[in-house]
Amino acid sequence: MEFIKDVINYLAAPKYLIVLAAALLFVSVKYRSIFYSDKAALILFPGMFAFLGVSMLDENFYLIVTKPDNVPIVGMLFLIPFFTWFAMREGIRNDERVASGKPVVEKDESAKKVLCWPDLVYTELICMVVLTFVLIGWSIMIGAPIEEAANPASTPNPSKAPWYFLGLQEMLVYFDPWLAGVVFPSLIVGGLIAIPYIDTNPKGNGYYTFKERSWEITTFLFGFLILWVLLVILGTFLRGPNWNFFGPYEYWDVHKLEALVNINLSEYIWVKALGTGLPSNILVRESFGFILVLAYLLVTPIILAKTLFKQFYENLGPARYHVMVFLLLSMAALPIKMVLRWLFNLKYIIGIPEYFFNI
Amino acid sequence: MSSETPNGEGKKPAIPPPAKKDPALNISQRGDRLYEVESLHKWFAITSLLLFVFTVWMIMADYNREWKQYQRAFNRMQVQQTQAEMDAASGAIDVAAFGVLQGQLNDARGTLVANESEVNRIQGELDDLNAQLYAADQNFRFARATYDVEQYDHEEAFASGASNSDALLGQAQATLALVGEHELRVEELTLEIRAAEAELGTFIGQRDDIQSQMAGLRAEYDRLEGVRNTLDPGLVVTSFRNAPVLDMLNPSEKIKQILVPNLFNDHPFLQVPRVDRCTTCHLGIDQEGFADAPQPFTAHPELDKFLGSSSPHPMDQFGCTTCHSGLDRAVQFTRAGHMPVDEAQTAEWEENYHWEEQHFLETPMLPMNRIEASCLKCHTGAGDVPAAPSLNVGRDLIRMYGCFGCHNIPGYEDIRRVGPDLTTIASKLDKEWARRWLREPRGFKSEARMPQFWFNSNNNAPVDAARNYAEINAIVEFLYSKSRPNPLPAGRTNGNAEQGQALVESVGCMGCHAVGPIAEEEGQAQHRRRFGYNLENQGSKVTTEWLYNWVRDPQSVWHDTNMPSLRLSNQEAADVAAYLSSLTNPDFEAQPWTETDETALDQITLEFLRAGSTGIEARERLTGMSLEDKHLFSGERLIGQYGCFGCHTIEGFEATQPIGTELTIAGSKQVTRLDFGFLDLPHERSAWYEQKLTDPRIFDVGRVKRPDERLRMPNFNFTEEQVDSIVLVITGLVKGEVPPDMRNDLSAELEAGRAMIARRNCRGCHEIEGAGGDIQATLEEGLAPPMLATEGAKTQPLWLHPFLQDPGEETLRPWLSVRMPTFYFDEVEAATIGRYFSAFDEVEYPFIETSIATNDERLQQGAELFRLLQCERCHPTSDAPPPPGVTAADLAPNLQLGHERLRPEWVVRWLTNPQQIMPGTRMPTYYPDFPLAPPELGGGSALTHIEAIRDYLFLTIGNGQRAPDITEDD
User: Does the pTM exceed 0.90?
Assistant: First the structure.
């Protein structure tokens, strides 16, 4: 048992967790008819419940999972896989129907009527009732008593953002606050707003499908599940005092230390590769970083337009293509930086702490 | 649920042909619908039911909140108690008197019936008049209101020069006339009513009189009934007022709170008024009848000191959390921050209240065994806190053990270092003794106050031994190299040890010193006998010559010593020195000593050399140093590192800052800032401080640290009680302002006096303000130094001042061996004490009236009483030693000195009731029936007797000043 716990603790480290989860996502998409079948759900969800139940026997796991603040995330652990599974199952079913020459299910159903009352409003009413008593029950069980006054001079350790911002907080491990806290959230919001204007493809409107939108759905699932939801879960359950990583069965020891040995790209090049000191001129010092970042943002789209994304470029036209690729590259920047950190201890590609400008 | 299909099984139906658009009014019968809603009805029913259940659950959860249940229980208890009191009151009614009145009442009623027609007629008239008065009064008031308006209108018109001003004035005057008429009518009617009532009174007055007498008899019962009815207003009222949901309007069960004036919760950037809601559940806390009620209704155990409106800490001004701490606004047991006393209580609370520690609450309640700590919030001055014995001991211990030498502790500023001056160490001690002493002070004597620095929890491993010896040697070498000569006269060594012992045990040494372990007395802390060094094994430490000089005149050996002179003669001093020299510790003297291991010393020296230079430079310097150089260099730095100068005067360290942690707000220190090491301790402040004082360096155990990183606090070997007392003081040092009206600010006289009393350890011998007199345990009864109760009211300031400066000049009980020592007080110090006593007793200082107004008759009576009462049997009137058959213990102070020593009015107080002033005194109470004198003394006024004795004492026995005679008229 201890051995299994150790293995899980080990694999729960961000670098393994994120890589494994991403791999699992891509594999499940590739072999979707197996992963998103009813049978798979019968194994997956009871399996998750069983895992949770057995793990609760562990004192440290129990403490974190039952913390009143973490209750919504425990719910999310089940809800998000369920809805992902459900949407994928419906899409796969439609894809099969199309392949065998039948129209999609929604097309069949559209011949019949769905009435505002009772089909819609009645259902909504029942949902309201359920939600109300669930919230009442929740608030009785987990009270909100008068607690001691907050003291900014003595903050809890770890200090955590509200659960829905934990993804952003996790990003702070890899990026400076101005990027992780300002630029990326703005790009996420702006990018989501921009999607309808970039993607004018009418396929998939009004019906579930995977095959017709496989690239878009896979990209979305990666961005949402791996780069957002997984980071929220990671931030909630696996980040302890001092934002150090703790396995799910590990005790949150305040004194745990991590060696801070990350270095900048400039040091890699000037000190390690060229064997000279760091140039005193900031721009010269960081010139490689600037070249790399600019190339990533400016040259990559052009290369992609001629190679991998040729089809996109032709379909979308230059304006929409470049917006789309910029957003995509921004999203990819996070996993890229993660991997660089895990593999090379890379701190910053451009590191100008003198002006708080670090990338 | 919404995607269910009529055929179930998740299979989609075959697509039906488009339905004809026939107008089906009943939607459930339409054939073209995708979803079927029948199952939704079922779900709606289930969920609605669940919503109802949850709503009821919510209401009941609110209705059954912890504090509401307590209030209900308390209400039931109060009703029961009042009912019992009512029963008692009804039993106490004088039944016979009540019966008589009842009879009279019946008679009166009978008479009334006979005159029924007349009574009815008058009553009718009265009703009629009252009706008229009502109408007339209304007319009067309305007319007056109209007049006020008209008057205003006129004045307004007049001021603005309007043309109708005169017309308005006329109108107002007309109305005024009307007001007069109405007023007249009211007065007429009032008079008529009065006449009618008087007439009616002749018939019914007797009945009313009897009824009011009866009411008087049952007044207590009626009052209690009223209380009962308020507490228990009947099922209907209570069930409506406090019913679920309806209780939102005006329930009788509500949160009770005390708004403590001027007391705030100190949050960053914000001060929130303190709102104590403790009384929401602790409902009987200030009611005397609830002393034995179960918690949470138990009354405060000391209502005369706390909470009572006449106590020094009334509840509405002090609240609860001022002393107890905790979360003021919380009304749940756990949230309020209750803290258990011990593990048993913890278990009990966990069982009964689901108690758990509030980790983020910075001010949890003080457990009841630590409540005294709170007194320090307001009682910050010198002197004892009443009703906090353990805290007082802690404060004394901090002063004696010199904690303030290393730690900044409020209230302990400007106190002399507690340890001896080491600038002349070579003239007193030899090196071997100093080394062994440093290694283990308790190895030399069991009560050593010097703490142990080496061979402690974090440096007693075998590998540390060489380093420890090297460090000790280095420090000793350094101290001796800096030592200056201290020329002393040649000492005498021809003393008699036996006589010396008798002297030590009788002259008063034992007020501050003990020889060997102190036998604890029942109810007597005796910690003041640790004020001076324990005299055990002195012979193994210093020479007889040195001891002779020291006991003969301590100030000549060390000018800054606290040790007073006992005015020993040269022979006495030699005897005492001989006795102390005879106390030796051969085991200690035989202890082998390990010389410095140079490798270890090199390592130490190197570490210090590294500070401020590189390792290469340090090693270079080290090679050029001799063994002595290394000793001296390391010794100096080690003294700096261990903070020896906190207790001892050491040359070169006179102004060095203390090394210990600041303790100014130690009681508010965040628990997360305390290093619990690898110990299994409850994570709370007091537990940590307890451990720290018991074994200061244990937190290092298990840690990998360089020698210079290790904890430095030495081990004082405190006992468990001592630790508890000191922890009280430390945890009492909390931050947060207490409003000035709460603080116990004392006058400067009291502060300075108490500080002086503590500094000079006066209480080692004397009982002052109800504490002290530790020496009594070592002396026979009757031979002890006096209690100093009412000393200010008792002594004349102009006598006390020179007495304090030189007590040897004029002794009160010269036949006693124990004596008041000479402290060499200067004018200011002596005056500080004198002023303190006068201020404490609230009497005049320093100039007082001492002349006595009397007459010869009275003096004669005094002489007669003096003879009758045989005062001279105990009070000698000369310095002669006691006659045979009378022991020194039987004798009381010499009365010849009374007139210049005592305040005349105090003598009267004393003779009236000596036991009240000094409980347990041997002085008999001659006037137990005060203000009457006993017949065998001639009867009459006791006060006259006492004054006569006093006058005789002051004027005839003594030679006091006589004021003009009083005459009998006075």
Answer: no
B29 touches chain A (CB under 8 A): no
Does a cis peptide bond (omega within 30 degrees of 0) precede residue B934? no
Relative orientation angle of helices B389-401 and B720-732, to the nearest 10 degrees: 90
Q: Which residues in chain A are closer than 8 Å to B362, comparing Cβ atoms? A: 148, 151, 154
What one-letter code names the amino acid at B707? P
Structure tokens at B764: 């080692």
pLDDT computed for residue A183 by the predictor: 93
Torsion over CA: A49, A50, A51, A55 (sign): positive
Please state, in angstroms and rounded to a whole number, the distance separating the CA atoms of residues B216 and B507.
70
DSSP B738-764: PPTTTS-PPPHHHHHHHHHHHHTTGGG
Q: Please report where in the chains the tokens 């007349």 appear, as a residue.
A: B118
Query: Nearest 5 degrees, angle CA A189-CA A191-CA A192?
Result: 65
Interchain pair A137, B332: CB under 8 A: no
Q: Which of A140-149, B25-34, B73-82, B738-747 has the lowest mean pLDDT?
A: B25-34
Nearest to B473 by CA among B486, B454, B459, B457: B454
State how far the Cα of B546 lies from the Cα of B713, in Å rounded to an integer: 32
Q: Which residue of B has its CA nearest to A126?
A: B44
Tell me how far apart the alpha carbons of residues B467 and B269 are, in angstroms, rounded to a whole number: 51
User: With pLDDT > 70 as the criterion, what percentage of chain B qualifies?
Assistant: 96
| Percent of all residues in chain B with a pLDDT value above 90, rounded to a whole number | 43
Label residue B659 exposed, middle or buried (CB < 10 Å: 0-12, 13-18, 19+).
middle
Q: What is the pLDDT of residues A88-98, one digit of tens each?
A: 999 999 999 99
The CA R_g of chain A, rounded to the nearest whole Å, is: 24
pLDDT of B599-657, one tens digit each?
999 999 999 999 889 999 999 999 999 999 999 999 999 999 999 999 999 999 988 89
Instruction: Kindly determine whether residue B265 and residue A149, on different chains, have CB atoms separated by under 8 Å.
Output: yes
Separation CA B544–CA B125 (nearest Å): 114
Q: Which residues of chain A have a CB within 8 Å of the CB of B358? A: 148
Query: Crossing angle of helices B615-623/B598-610, nearest 10°?
Result: 140
Q: Three-state DSSP class for B332? A: coil
CB atoms within 10 A of CB B85: 17
Q: Is B30 at the interface with chain A, CB within 8 A?
A: yes
Chain A, nearest residue to B54 by Cα: A133
Contact residues, chain B, for A126 at CB < 8 Å: 40, 43-44, 47
Decide if B16 touches A, using CB distance below 8 A.
Answer: yes
Q: Judging by DSSP bridges, how do beta strands B313-314 and B306-307 pair with one another?
A: parallel
Rounded CA separation B370/B686 (Å) = 9
Amino acid in position A70 = N
CB contact under 8 A, A156 and B360: yes
- Contact criterion met (CB < 8 Å) for A133 and B50: yes
| pLDDT, tens digit, 9 for 90 and up, residues B402-435 | 999 999 998 888 888 999 999 999 999 999 999 9
Are the CB atoms for B649 and B639 separated by under 8 Å?
no
Is the minimum CB–CB distance between B40 and chain A shorter than 8 Å?
Answer: yes
Collapsing DSSP states into helix, strand and coil, what is residue B856? helix
Tell me which residue in B51, B58, B335 faces A129 most closely, judged by beta carbons: B51
Partner B, chain A 253-292, Cβ-Cβ below 8 Å: 254
CA distances from B30 to A174, B21, B22, B35 (A): 60, 10, 9, 11
Contact call for A109 and B50, based on CB within 8 A = no
Rounded Cα distance between B730 and B665, Å, is 8
E-state strands within B439-557:
none
Q: Closest approach of chain A CAs to the CA of B711, in angstroms?
A: 19
Tokens of A298: 């400016």
